[in-house]
Design a protein that fits this description.
Blueprint lengths: L30 H21 L3 H8 L3 H9 L6 H24 L10 H15 L3 E5 L6 H11 L3 E5 L7 H11 L7 H12 L6 E5 L6 H14 L2 E6 L1 H6 L10 H6 E6 L5 H10 L5 H11 L4 H15 L7 H11 L5
Helix pairs in contact: 1-4, 2-3, 5-6, 7-8, 12-13, 13-14, 13-15, 14-15
Bound molecules: adenosine-5'-triphosphate and magnesium ion (MG).
Length: 340
Amino acid sequence: MNETVTTSPAIGWTLPTGQPDIAGGRPGRSQADLDVWHVLVGKVAEIGNRQGWAKAEVARRIGIPDGTFSQWFSGKYDGRLDTQNSRVERWIASVEEMAGLAATIPVAPGFIHTRAAAEIINTLVFAQMLTDFVTITAAAGTGKTMACKQFAATRSNVHMVTVSPHTKTVHGMLMELATALDLTQHNPAKLVRSIGNRLARSENTLLIVDEAQNLIDAAVDQLRHFVDCYGCGLALVGNDEIYTRFARRTDGPSYAQIKRRIAKRVRLPKPPAEDIGKLLDAWKIEDPDARKFLTGIGMKDGALGQIDKTIKLAVMRSEGAPIDAGMLRKAWSNRDVEGL
Ligand SMILES: Nc1ncnc2c1ncn2[C@@H]1O[C@H](COP(=O)(O)OP(=O)(O)OP(=O)(O)O)[C@@H](O)[C@H]1O
Ligand SMILES: [Mg+2]
């Protein structure tokens, strides 16, 4: 068992010519451990070649220091073979499991021209053409993000950022913007000006801020400043909170400066049956029972997103059989999200 040399032209995993020395009966270095090692090095090399991962990459993925992995692989590792073997074995199992799972994960249809998407895109065109400030609000899962991404991917001078609770402050949001605009500015005092100048480079720049309900008031006001001083369009996209936040009310801040600048507010209802139908068509769901069941799910909170997740789970559990209403019902109950 000393030789067996195989070379891959792509990444060059060569099976070791030597093997661990198990003489002396030291713990964790038995004949059985050696046999396991032989099987594992072959599998690791096969995965490395298949995925195009070099040794350092594999070591990083397994979570073993580079040097230790090299020694283990070449048969020169002098410590407990069984410990390293089992680390590698666990990793191989997870890689194979992921590969098996990946093969069963259905590919969702791409962007569909739903009515909601058309309305969102029309509003974004308006904001970009007139370099104005708009808000777009709709319930979760109605397709806001899909439509905005589609718009950003297919139009020039459109930049999209997604705000999270972590980036809701003025500084956090500015850093997100800088990244989206490919800007490096280490001096915080110059950040606003640098971003502004970049936005002003084109006459029709549109900034889309998704999940904008997360922004604190000062961050929204900072965005208003970009519209005012650098002439860009701005779309705040998110849930209903954005719609109601700047509404007339007697308590709290007046938001007069912000409200005065909002050119258009779009508030979408739950997805129309027509949009749900289009999504089901794209998934090629034909069985009337299945369509009826999924349409019901699409009317719930989470809307089109619920349909997408339920179909995906049903397909993954179907083992290749065509999807029917029974499988979808099981997938829905397996997800256990009713009433959330
Ligand atoms: N136009 C569309 N084309 C294809 N799939 C869509 C479309 N709109 C929605 N979907 C499906 O619905 C899911 C949810 O859509 P999306 O993430 O855009 O919703 P959202 O309105 O941004 O929701 P949230 O408020 O939770 O962020 C998508 O992952 C996709 O599966
Ligand atoms: Mg979204």
